[in-house]
Design a protein that fits this description.
about 550 residues, alpha+beta, D-Maltodextrin-Binding Protein, domain 2, Dipeptide-binding Protein, domain 3, seven-stranded mixed sheet
Length: about 550
């Protein structure tokens, strides 16, 4: 390949890297330090300057919920990614400045039309089972995601618009796309597109999620359901990404991820020393832990889609913009966020978190509680209050079905209770259902009027999965929104390489979503970890997931 062609391609790579950022994981989104910024914040760390890392020991790390699977292609949960990052590696790594650097891939070129990426791979990487990590393994992993038999979750959306790959030689692979995508290179850095051992995936089939094999810094040992997941040091590891200082094998002997859903028990375990670190510190504990002589409180701001309540527009009357706007005016989100989170969570104003590319800060403070407006809109819709205060039209009570999951993660069940109380004041009856089977109630039965969800993400292309019209045979989006104008904007956002134009596209999308009350954005989630002061080296990647390559335990 001529040098001029390579230079041109590398310039396009740089442009893509500046715009690219990752996509998609169901789960918590994080508070931004500034509502004006669009860059992913720098990772935080427990590393101590000039400290010599101790070798050995086992880190106990309490998780707030249990992963659904340790198969990166099949899971849709953020909590699973916390474990994935110990087991799997990615082709490239995204740094905090959004630049994309080598990891399993040493270099790459992009075709002039943006529809193919050719990667050169490292030649010294093996999976935990001894299988070589080569071009065939990469092809297998990506084709596996597209295979309906895999039942891939968020990995499918991450991988789009990938259609096929070609093995050029043992350590060179060409990935072909249906259409160009500004976000694709960044997406490849995500744990849900981690490369899996073809040998193990074929051997275990549907049980691969219980027998995971990657090439990461730690190897899987065991998983006791709803109790703990154990991983141990990969002694051969020497290909860490630039996000961490330790490029070789981990300092720790291993990690035990304890599954402790109960907040008081989880935080109490960290305070008592039963675990050395515990995630998702409740607001009421955050202030106290900052003054605890034995603990350090780590907090990282991640981007993505804030915790958001989605209207199901396939169900009347919520397919009417006035009905949605009435709820939007009746719900006092300021009071909810302040009451439940004690100033530790930031209110959300947009379908994007404040540190996302294209975030529209002009939306801040734009929607305020206004019960008079809510009552006026409901009057205009022909709903009149009955003797019990609930509005009625054509003999039918105005009822909203609010569904949330169990356990009460981040006090989300409490949000439902307060919304129920607030909407009753304007004559809307709210039926709250708390279910352990969100998959069936929400995604199979579509039996909700309002349901909350969030995503960790750093590229606004993720909005497509929530607000673009879905294909006739595909699973509907949570909003059930279908608007050709919004579809066109979202499609343009995937391919637009002009940064200013791309920002404007996403500002238009955000304004439409808020003006038409498609959602109620609630809060930005700060991922917090309470850790013993004996722990050094916990870092967080650009999306806010913990990395354990540099972690050591002091015996002093």
């Amino acid at each position: 390949m001529e040098r001029e062609t390579i230079v041109k391609k590398q310039r396009w790579i740089s442009l893509l890297a500046s715009l690219s950022a990752a996509v998609f994981v169901l789960g918590a989104c994080a508070e931004a330090g500034s509502t004006k910024g669009a860059n992913v914040p720098a990772p935080q760390t427990t590393s101590k300057a000039n400290a010599q890392p101790a070798v050995g020991g086992e880190l106990s790390y309490a998780l707030a919920t249990s992963p659904d699977s340790l198969d990166p292609h099949r899971s849709g949960l953020a909590v699973a990614v916390r474990v994935f990052r110990t087991l799997y590696d990615s082709l490239v790594v995204q740094l905090p400045d959004n630049s994309i650097k080598p990891w399993l891939a040493t270099e790459w070129t992009i075709s002039p039309d943006g529809k193919s990426y050719t990667f050169k791979l490292r030649k010294d990487v093996k999976f935990h089972d001894g299988t070589p990590l080569n071009a065939e393994a990469v092809k297998y992993s990506f084709d596996r995601i597209l295979d309906p038999a895999t039942k891939a979750a968020n990995a499918t959306a991450l991988l789009k618009p990938y259609k096929s790959s070609e093995v050029i030689d043992e350590y060179t692979i060409k990935l072909n796309l249906e259409t160009p995508s500004v976000a694709f290179l960044g997406n490849l850095s995500q744990a849900m597109l981690g490369i899996v051992s073809p040998t193990a995936a074929k051997k275990y089939g549907d049980q691969f999620g219980k027998n995971p094999v990657g090439s990461g810094p730690y190897k899987f040992v065991k998983w006791n359901d709803n109790a703990e997941i154990k991983v141990e040091r990969n002694p051969d590891y020497s290909w860490a990404p630039a996000l961490v200082e330790n490029q070789g094998k981990p300092y720790l002997d291993g990690i035990v991820f304890k599954i402790v859903p109960e907040e008081a028990t989880r935080i109490g375990s960290a305070q008592s020393g039963q675990v050395l670190a515990a995630e998702t510190v409740p607001p009421q504990n955050a202030v106290a832990l900052k003054n605890d002589a034995k603990l350090q409180l780590l907090q990282v701001n991640t981007g993505g889609l804030p915790y958001t309540l989605f209207f199901n527009q396939s169900r009347a009357p919520w397919n009417d913009v006035k009905a949605r706007q009435a709820v939007q005016a009746a719900v006092d989100l300021d009071a909810i966020v302040k009451t439940l989170y004690l100033g530790t969570y930031q209110r959300a104003w947009s379908p994007l978190a404040p540190n996302m590319f294209g975030y529209d800060a002009a939306l801040e403070n734009g929607v305020k509680a206004d019960p008079d407006k809510a009552n006026r809109l409901l009057d205009e819709l022909g709903y009149t209050k009955g003797a019990d205060g609930i509005r009625v039209k054509d003999g039918k009570k105005l009822t909203l079905r609010y569904v949330d999951g169990s356990p009460n993660r981040e006090k989300r069940n409490d949000i439902a209770t307060i919304v129920q109380q607030q909407l009753k004041k304007v004559g809307i009856a709210v039926e709250v259902e708390i279910t352990k089977d969100v998959q069936t109630v929400i995604y199979t039965q579509q039996a909700y009027d309002l349901y909350g969800n969030s995503q960790v993400n750093s590229d606004p292309v993720a909005l497509n999965s929530f607000y673009h019209t879905t294909a006739p045979n595909a699973r509907p989006s949570l909003s059930h929104l279908s608007d050709p104008a919004i579809d066109k904007l979202l499609e343009q956002g995937v391919v637009e390489t002009d940064e200013a134009k791309r920002k404007d596209i996403y500002k238009q999308v955000q304004r439409y979503i808020i003006d038409n009350a498609v959602i109620l954005p609630v809060y930005i989630f700060p991922y917090t970890v309470a850790a013993s002061k004996s722990i050094s080296g916990i870092k967080f990647d650009a999306l806010g997931y913990p990395l354990f390559n540099d972690v050591s335990i002091s015996t002093k």
